[in-house]
Q: What sequence folds into this?
């Protein structure tokens, strides 16, 4: 049976240069590997396990906030077209549908073609009134995509959940948001999930859990390099380590070499000193102020802001800077945003609406 509300668009994102990036990252004075390579099949399974760990509050907290946004209506005159970055799984979008009214179109974007198309088709079957367009693309390809052809008549809302933005450097995050600002235009929005700065006693165990699942997830990157690129990393000779970088408010994941050793990879010999680390991930933690600054640098401001009772995670609605919300930004700046009363007032889905 053909589905009238379902289509796929495949921009055929270029295959990533795994070997090139690994060689490049491991030949730097400070060795690094990109976190996007964590997610092979086993890595995806491990990440799902992480999301269920008692210590990993991130996913649970984000979902609990989403459930609080009952019947959130955005001030838009059109139906919404929700564009989800990294939307190969429709799980969070289905939760969002319960709270965000008037979604007419859903455009999940991912490079993981098979999962993306399959999940999107299932969703289209389940929601006959929703137009679903699965877009296989990388983020760079979004800039030149002819959005008007597909989203004309809708108000675009980019949905970027999970604090995935925390993997980016501040300048990468700024470029991404600046590009998204051009895509959604002056009437569109970004719905952004951000993990917040919090006590280290909560932060560290979330990335260094008692069962060792996160350690396994980190080490799996070396296993993947062995399997896919024919390297000979001895996983027993590397240890998972978490560091908190206070200057930049970020969790860093490292793999520390337990011995002085050499590793062979594609005809190259890599030297590791005892105690030398491979930096595998940054997971930045935000404050309301830092999100405000990031938004302002890319032409947005915070229209609405929701958090949980512990202030562990925030879902932020960014709208473009209009005269109306410039006024409210000025008002906010003169107030102390860390004041508990202001924060409590801000938690209500309706009370912090700044657009009118
Ligand atoms: C998927 C990037 C949001 O930073 O919390 C979880 C990845 N790394 N445990 C995060 C991750 C280790 C996760 N993000």
A:
């Amino acid at each position: 049976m053909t589905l009238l509300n379902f289509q796929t668009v495949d921009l055929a994102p270029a295959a990533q240069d795994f070997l090139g990036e690994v060689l490049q990252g491991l030949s730097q004075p400070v060795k690094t590997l990109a976190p996007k390579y964590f997610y092979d099949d086993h890595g995806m399974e491990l990440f799902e396990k992480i999301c269920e760990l008692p210590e990993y509050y991130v996913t649970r907290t984000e979902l609990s906030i989403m459930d609080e946004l009952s019947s959130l209506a955005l001030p838009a005159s059109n139906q919404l077209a929700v564009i989800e970055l990294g939307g190969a799984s429709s799980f969070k979008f289905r939760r969002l549908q319960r709270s965000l009214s008037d979604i007419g179109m859903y455009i999940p974007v991912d490079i993981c073609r098979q999962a993306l198309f399959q999940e999107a088709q299932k969703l289209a079957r389940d929601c006959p009134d929703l137009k679903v367009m699965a877009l296989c693309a990388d983020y760079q390809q979004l800039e030149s995509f002819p959005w008007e052809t597909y989203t004309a008549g809708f108000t675009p809302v980019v949905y970027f959940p999970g604090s995935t933005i925390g993997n980016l450097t501040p300048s990468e995050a700024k470029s991404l948001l600046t590009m998204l600002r051009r895509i959604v235009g002056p009437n569109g929005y970004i719905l952004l999930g951000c993990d917040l700065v919090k006590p280290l006693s909560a932060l560290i165990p979330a990335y260094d859990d008692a069962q060792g699942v996160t350690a396994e997830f980190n080490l799996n990157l070396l296993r993947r390099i062995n399997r896919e690129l024919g390297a000979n990393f001895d996983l027993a000779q590397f240890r998972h380590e978490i560091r908190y970088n206070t200057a930049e408010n970020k969790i860093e994941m490292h793999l520390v070499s337990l011995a002085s050793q050499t590793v062979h990879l594609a005809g190259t010999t890599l030297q590791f000193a005892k105690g030398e680390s491979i930096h595998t991930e940054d997971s930045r933690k935000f404050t309301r102020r830092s999100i405000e600054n990031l938004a302002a640098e890319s032409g947005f401001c915070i229209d609405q802001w929701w958090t949980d009772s512990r202030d562990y995670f925030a879902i932020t609605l960014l709208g473009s800077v209009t005269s109306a919300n410039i006024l409210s930004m000025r008002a906010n700046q003169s107030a102390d945003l860390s004041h508990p009363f202001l924060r409590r007032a801000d938690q209500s889905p309706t009370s912090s609406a700044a657009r009118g």
The mean pLDDT is 90. The domain at 57-199+286-355 is CATH 3.40.50.150 (Rossmann fold). The chain has two domains: 34-54+200-284, 57-199+286-355. The radius of gyration is 21 Å.
